[in-house]
Amino acid sequence: MGAQLAGLLAKLDIRGPRDLLLHLPLRYEDETRLTPIADVRPGFPAQVEGEVAACEVVLRPRRQLVVRIHDGSGVLVARWLNFYPSQQKQLAVGRRVRLFGEPRGGFFGYEMVHPRVRPVEQDEPLPDALTPVYPTTAGVGQATLRKLIDRALQSEHLDDPLPAEILGDLRLPGFAEALRALHHPAPDADPAALELREHPAWRRIKFEELLVQQMSLRRAYNARRARRAVPLPERGRLPRALLGALPFRPTGAQSRAAAEIAADLAAPHPMQRLLQGDVGSGKTLVAALAMLQAVDNGWQAVMMAPTEILAEQHWRKLSAWLAPLGIDVAWLSGSRRKRERETELERLRSGEVLLAVGTHALIEDPVTLPRLALAVVDEQHRFGVRQRLALREKGEENRRPHMLMMSATPIPRTLAMTHYADLDVSVLDELPPGRTPIRTRLVSDARRDEVVERVRQACLGGRQAYWVCPLIEESEALQLQTAVETFDALAEALSELRVGLVHGRLKADEKSAAMKAFSAGEIDVLVATTVIEVGVDVPNASLMVIEHAERFGLAQLHQLRGRVGRGSAESVCILIYAQPLSQTGRERLKVIYENTDGFEIARADLRIRGPGEFVGARQSGLPLLRYASLEEDGDLIEPARQLAERMLRDMPEATERLMQRWLGGREALLRA
Ligand code: ADP
Ligand code: MG
């Protein structure tokens, strides 16, 4: 194989015969039948056979090869905008060819653009099976791929490492049989099952892929448990003191999660736990209890948050909770004055202060945490894998900190079992008592004035409101302008109220001043961009207005709505939308209107968007599944998980072969 071809194949992630085997068809084309030209229909791919009646290069409107084919029933035009002289020869007048393509209506009857051509003899037999079409890249033709794959099918040893009885239980074919069925469908194969990837051969390959994913996640999990961390035995003194001083009791879910975390922290290997809980479920308290377990043992703990606003809010809350216990919390953020920051850094370096809260300022160079034993990452999906790694590296080389990741974006069960299976998970499935459910209203923007009136009434009645500006993803400048204009308009319309503004371009101390004023009740209406999306907690705010709600994603809407409904007052979220709504826009608003449960919403989100963005947000370097679909093959995940555990334990050699087959040398990547 030439170096050039090898280079092109590498683009398709094909680095050897093994990768060729698993380079499976994108779809299939039915070349087993010929359609008389008179019977072709626009939009329905068809194969026709006939004689070339004319072949010419036309120069206008642009250079192209135009060919007319006739078969006795009619005439069809074929066009190529890019073509080689060899193609012209193949299509010389009088030649007999088969064309496969999608006909569309043209000026002179039906035409095909860039159909596949095959020169044929009179009465040449048709293939008796479906023709696979492979994903490819410019310069690698289908015929080349097919030839290479056929060669690999013959030369490679297609052993089957899966236990036969599992295949029997799941009614899946063997590996060799499955590959042959996919690369060379049998004449009687069900075309729909192949096309929809429901054929047992597809299921076999998808099962194997899920199995390998489970194996590599499981291995990463085991590797972590082999590393060392500072054991933080449960002493209970400080956590008990905090709970005793709080005006409320933890929910059952909070107690359960706290106990799971406490047990992990006591172990000599690093915890890697995801604390999942809907907005408002009280994750901060659970994190605080874990941090106190570190302090109880004389070690440091930090909490990292994605925005200044959130970091400051955490710092305030933790300080308020812990000051009475005589515990100081350092605060690191870009907004603090240089001298204040120096002091904080020194107090952390010397170990005088054991707790710190901050933004990514925490992972910057000057920060040293000689006794770091626990790192909490709030809204973990907002951070990239590198930032989380940097935080982990703040610990000493041979002493990894325990990691607690928190997220309010619930991960649907299938994703939790696959892409997140290397983590332990605690779930807060219960909201603190006394919350009244949020009512959601959908209002067309023609009725914006009524909404403004509603805000006035609520605020005159002593409540507070958020007003979220339309999202303008394309331009930050426009986003800013919109925010300022919205603020001006509302300040004028609501002249008897105090209206404030926060947006991403404000300096950190300005942002913080606005949030503080809102929190203290000195501002009635807070006009905001999505900087308030995560975590902000002002219980007296009971009205949330979101303009152009159709532009926001589901997770974002759910997060925004979660800013209200935190106190005892009845809360309302008004989603203002503009007509006409796109199909997805309509679908999303319907989901958010009908559901308040974050898990339901996440499931719907997964359905509407696919898993790409969820997993993309994790930025973990984990490849997406190539063939298995979490929605359609969810029933295979549990058996894959069970078999992975068993094979890792009892069948090391078969495990190795499988991982090699699917990952080659790429497994190192997955460990990041
Ligand atoms: P989230 O899970 O969204 O981060 P927070 O930790 O911000 O939620 O908690 C939301 C609000 O509920 C806070 O004001 C917090 O003090 C309060 N809270 C937490 N736990 C309880 C509880 N068990 N009972 C009553 N209120 C609680
Ligand atoms: Mg939070």
UniProtKB/TrEMBL annotation:
It catalyses: Couples ATP hydrolysis with the unwinding of duplex DNA by translocating in the 3'-5' direction; ATP + H2O = ADP + phosphate + H(+). Residues 264-428 form the Helicase ATP-binding domain. The keyword Phosphoprotein does not apply. One of its GO terms (biological process) is DNA recombination. Its EC number is 5.6.2.4. SMART domains: DEXDc, HELICc. It comes from the Bacteria. It is an enzyme of class 5 (isomerase). Residues 461-607 form the Helicase C-terminal domain. GO terms for molecular function: 3'-5' DNA helicase activity; ATP binding; ATP hydrolysis activity; DNA binding. Keywords: ATP-binding, DNA damage, DNA recombination, DNA repair, DNA-binding, Helicase, Hydrolase, Isomerase, Nucleotide-binding. Gene3D superfamilies: Nucleic acid-binding proteins, P-loop containing nucleotide triphosphate hydrolases. It holds the Pfam family RecG_dom3_C. The keyword Zinc does not apply. NCBIfam families: PRK10917.1-1, PRK10917.1-3, PRK10917.1-4, PRK10917.2-2, recG. Plays a critical role in recombination and DNA repair. Helps process Holliday junction intermediates to mature products by catalyzing branch migration. Has replication fork regression activity, unwinds stalled or blocked replication forks to make a HJ that can be resolved. Has a DNA unwinding activity characteristic of a DNA helicase with 3'-5' polarity. Belongs to the helicase family. RecG subfamily. PANTHER family: ATP-DEPENDENT DNA HELICASE HOMOLOG RECG, CHLOROPLASTIC. This is ATP-dependent DNA helicase RecG.
